[in-house]
Design goal:
It contains seven helices and 13 strands. The protein is of the alpha+beta class. Strands 1, 2, 3, 4, 5, 6, 7, 8, 9, 10, 11, 12 and 13 form a 13-stranded antiparallel sheet that branches. The relative contact order is 0.16.
């Protein structure tokens, strides 16, 4: 039994040396870098949405032009688009490409960065606890529990939601990226003034994967819960998005990172 006890004690000692708040802070810095890398990425997206009328499945090819993701639906419910649906889809895609090509890349990326600024408050908005380790897809990760910090006052309007959710992060030991993230809504979250309310009990799960060159991007996003859209329409949410076939190029967006920040 002694070797086992020593191993457990050693593992506990190593965990005690890790600062979970600093670990999360560094993972957010890397998350931002990966967002910039995604400004020139293409991938396949599979969207599965369950509702009262059954399950709807769509598969799209997504390309990123000037930082704008342009989606082209290639199949619905396992059947390739044909006839009027194919023509309508092609016209919609052509219009989206034209709009993306006319986008000012620098302004678009700066606006995207501004919208993400609320994430900078995460290290101050939560209390952090390192609760263990787990190997996912052959890669060891730390597990960090996040609970709202009592009395924290958000500076960014969107950061107010942090007081109404608790989360758990699996952070890859080597790359310091989110292998997995789970968020649980503990009180109603308002998005915008008239856009939506996400009800207590809703859950969001995100999984990420390495696509090479020290870049991690989403693998799966699963949203389950309820919402009131436009403050009128109640809707149950049960949707899963999966991502595959990532390809990246040399993005001009990454070159302007210093100017944006």
């Amino acid at each position: 039994m002694k070797p086992v006890i020593l191993a457990v004690a050693s593992a506990a000692a190593l965990l005690a040396q890790v600062n979970p708040r600093e670990l999360v802070r560094q993972s957010l810095v890397n998350y931002d870098r990966d967002w910039l890398a995604s400004a020139d990425v293409s991938f396949t997206q599979r969207d599965v949405e369950k509702g009262p009328d059954g399950t709807k499945v769509s598969v799209s090819e997504v390309s990123t032009i000037n930082g704008v993701q342009v989606e082209k639906v290639i199949s619905r419910n396992g059947t390739p688009l044909t006839g009027k649906d194919a023509v309508k889809g092609a016209e919609k895609y052509k219009k989206a490409v034209a709009e993306a090509n006319s986008t000012d890349l620098e302004k678009h990326m700066a606006e995207g960065q501004r919208k993400r600024d609320f994430l900078k408050e995460v290290p101050d908005a939560f209390d952090f606890k390192l609760i263990g380790e787990q190997t996912i897809a052959g890669r060891p990760s730390y597990i960090v529990q996040l609970t709202p910090k009592p009395g924290y006052e958000a500076k960014n309007r969107n950061a107010k939601m942090f007081s109404k959710m608790e989360a758990k992060l699996w952070i890859d030991k080597e790359d310091v990226r989110w292998t997995k993230a789970e968020a649980h809504v503990i009180d109603t979250i308002c998005i915008g003034v008239f856009l939506a309310r996400i009800g207590a009990g809703s859950n969001i799960v995100m999984e990420q994967m390495s696509i090479g060159n020290s870049v991690w991007l989403p693998k799966r996003i699963d949203v389950n819960g309820n919402a009131k859209i436009m403050m009128v329409h109640n809707k149950a949410i049960d949707e899963e998005l999966t991502y595959s076939n990532y390809t990246t190029g040399k993005s001009k967006a990454q070159a302007m990172t210093a100017r944006i920040r």
